[in-house]
Write a structure and sequence with these properties.
The chain has 328 residues and is α+β, with helices and mostly antiparallel strands. Helix content is 27%, strand content 23%. The chain contains nine helices and 17 strands. It has an eight-stranded antiparallel sheet with strand order 4-13-10-15-8-7-6-5. A hairpin with a 4-residue loop joins strand 5 and strand 6. The chain is globular, with a radius of gyration of 20 Å.
């Protein structure tokens, strides 16, 4: 169910923070009337600039605006995939297991975090534990490289490319809404710097003696779009482990914030930590993920304070902490 917000007048909390009441739901994460404390600098930012209405009058009539506001306030939201993307999602999940090992070996580019990569090539950002999943990555910017391989003519590759276009359009639209909220003059470009990743957790990987198949972490990007085939994803709003249950009848993805958005928002939008919990059952699990990263070849200033920020340094520190090579 898409998150909808009904704004009440701001209430000042005991610590001086301004509190808004937010009503809605995120997937099947039961969101009751929720009090969210935020720095009043952020809450009144839109009201101060360009004669914008006060916070209590801000409306969120469109799905992408709803999602943007939810990310700003609580660091997570949901979004319904269009019907074509829903079909592609299941196509990719059905076709991935049938790819021969030889094809996976030929279409593997670990030097640029692209193609098929086996378990053990990525590990937990903070603990060093190996992530118990195989990966299949796709970068839109590497299409010319892909064209040299027969796999690029396969149904799986074509479906991946089309699915990536859908999730990119969602991410791009939501980021534009966030930038409009902050009245940012510079546009954000993520087309050739973001990438798709299919995470495959095999049956045998679910029965190891580990509480998490992928440890608690934040991705180090702007936002991340995630759609798993089964339960297991947990997020940590306010530091509390919260299971994520997403309906399959209407393909709902969850979107969470990352530390690059934290840096650009002058620390006002914290990253959403998350993990993959072990079911301890012989049941395979997959997750389709879209990591949204800005163009790192240009300089950036923060959205509020207009301070210079080195996003390339922040992004590379995070990306390499997972065992990947530098982004740029």
């Amino acid at each position: 169910m898409m998150c909808r917000f009904m704004w009440a007048a701001p209430v000042r909390g005991g610590n001086g923070a301004v509190i808004l009441h937010c009503y809605g739901s995120v997937g099947t994460l039961a969101i009751q009337p929720l009090q969210v404390g935020m720095n009043k600098t952020l809450l009144h930012h839109q009201a101060r600039l360009h004669d914008s209405p006060p916070v209590a009058e801000i409306q969120a009539p469109r799905p992408m605006r709803d999602a943007a506001i939810a990310l700003i306030i609580q660091g997570h939201t949901t979004f319904k995939l269009p019907a074509a993307a829903q079909s592609l999602f299941w196509d990719i999940c059905d076709m991935y297991p049938a790819i021969p090992d030889k094809t996976r070996q030929m279409f593997s580019f670990p030097e640029c975090t692209d193609g098929f990569m086996l378990q053990g090539m990525e590990y937990a950002k903070y603990t060093g534990d190996v992530d118990l999943c195989d990966r299949y990555c796709y970068w839109h910017k590497n299409r010319s490289l892909h064209a040299n391989h027969v796999f690029s003519e396969s149904h799986l590759y074509q479906s991946t490319s089309l699915y990536e276009q859908h999730v990119h359009a969602i991410a791009d639209g939501i980021l534009r809404e966030i930038w409009q909220f902050f009245h940012a003059e510079e546009e954000i470009n993520v087309r050739d710097s973001s990438y798709f990743q299919y995470c495959a957790y095999g049956n045998h990987q679910q029965i190891v003696d580990r509480y998490y198949l992928q440890g608690k972490h934040e991705d180090g990007h702007l936002i991340t779009l995630i759609k798993p085939t089964r339960d297991g994803l947990v997020i940590f709003p306010r530091g509390e482990e919260t299971p994520v249950h997403l309906h399959d009848d209407e393909i709902i993805i969850i979107i969470i914030t990352g530390s690059l958005l934290t840096a650009l928002s002058d620390g006002q939008i914290p990253p959403m930590y998350h993990a993959v919990q072990n079911s301890y059952m012989k049941i395979g699990r997959a997750s389709l993920v879209y990591f949204v990263i800005p163009n790192l070849e240009r300089p950036y200033r923060t959205l509020l304070g207009k301070k210079q920020v080195d996003l390339l340094k922040i992004a590379n520190e995070s990306h390499m902490a997972f065992g990947n090579t530098a982004l740029a």
